[in-house]
Specification:
Number of strands: 4
Strand content: 5-15%
Radius of gyration: 17 Å
Number of domains: 2
Strand order of the largest sheet: 3-2-1-4
Helix content: 40-55%
Largest sheet: 4 strands, parallel
């Protein structure tokens, strides 16, 4: 497994604007790394790990549909953050981000660690191959025992690309779960916190 479990803090900011600023910093880092065609540094991986998903800040970070221009955001601070997000993302990325707002709520580290402890009690070995549907940026991988291998499936391209940067040795697939093809006789366990909603993603 990557050394991410020892270097990533999983310390998402507590305030709403702090979360938004962390996400913008992660997107800026991702774009720079991809533009330079190189692996992420340890410091950049920490920045990327603070991408907490749009769900928690969606009502403030995205403009209100149909609202007057001066009423689209709560205040000037949110307008600046929202406009920066719009500038950072391509139209396709922005639309994909908007579609995740009802499902992109990441799991607390204490819960993920407890779930991994449960896998160990069930006899899943530390070098198992584990499937994670809806893996986001790979936080379950960060909390996993060293040596565990993952197949992570994530539909949102932005989150999936961040997961690949943080966990370069893992098999991260950016596609719908119904589209992925899994190896036979290779999955030892399944873990994760997949979104549950009746919202089509097209």
């Amino acid at each position: 497994m990557d050394s991410a479990s020892t270097i990533l803090p999983l310390d998402i900011a507590s305030g709403q604007k702090g979360k938004a600023r962390d996400m913008l910093a992660a997107i800026r880092a991702l774009k720079q790394i991809e533009q330079e065609h190189r692996p992420a540094t340890s410091e950049e991986r920490q920045t990327l790990s603070r991408f907490g998903g749009f769900g928690a800040v969606a009502l403030s970070l995205f403009p209100k549909p149909g609202a007057e221009p001066d009423e689209q955001y709560k205040d000037k601070g949110w307008r600046a953050l929202g406009e920066e997000l719009h500038t950072l993302l391509t139209p396709e990325e922005y639309e994909s981000a908007r579609k995740t707002v009802t499902t992109a709520y990441y799991t607390a580290p204490v819960v993920m660690k407890a779930m991994h402890a449960a896998l160990q009690r069930l006899g899943v070995p530390g070098d198992a191959t584990v499937l994670e549907p809806g893996c986001g940026i790979g936080n379950f991988m960060t909390c996993a025992p060293e040596g565990m291998q993952f197949i992570g499936v994530e539909r949102d391209g932005l989150s999936g690309r961040i997961a690949r940067m943080i966990h370069p040795s893992q098999d991260i697939r950016i596609e719908g779960f119904q589209e992925t093809r899994l190896p036979e006789n290779r999955i030892d366990a399944v873990i994760g916190n997949v979104p549950f909603s009746d919202v089509p993603y097209k």
